[in-house]
Amino acid sequence: MTHRRAVWLMVLVTLLWSMAGVVTRHLDAASSFEVTFWRSAFNALALGVALTVLRGPALWFGLMHSPAVVWFSGVCWAVMYTAFMLALTLTSVANVLVSMAIGPMVTALFSWVFCAAACRCVAGWR
In the chain, how many domains are there? Predict the structure, then answer.
């Protein structure tokens, strides 16, 4: 993939992700779990088709023989995806997007605090 194509793809993905909140809030007839189910089902179908086209059938063999960390990552993504959709249907879109935007900053602060504490512990053991 060229750099230009990758940049345009990232812009498209960002645009589509930012529209998810607005589109989800306009679904009046569906409950939060129903929206999450159908969005997840269509996402799984689209990913299955796209990855098979791009990587071939060997992708599925490699996925089935992946280490546990790959499966743990998948579970974390599933929880995040479900929590995002439920949050969109239960509170305002602005609250959800602000919470998601501060997530990397909170992660960086936690890692700084915990790494500093761990370094002090290790230094104290010597």
Answer: 2
Torsion of CA 50, 55, 56, 60, to 10 degrees: -90
Q: Which domain holds residue 19?
A: 3-90
| CA dist., res. 102 & res. 87, Å (int) | 15
Residue 75 and residue 48 share a domain = yes
Selection from 82, 79, 84 nearest residue 95 by Cα: 84
- Residue-wise pLDDT for 48-74, tens only, equals 898 899 888 888 888 889 999 999 998
Give yes or no: residues 106 and 59 share one domain. Answer: no
Its pTM stands at: 0.56
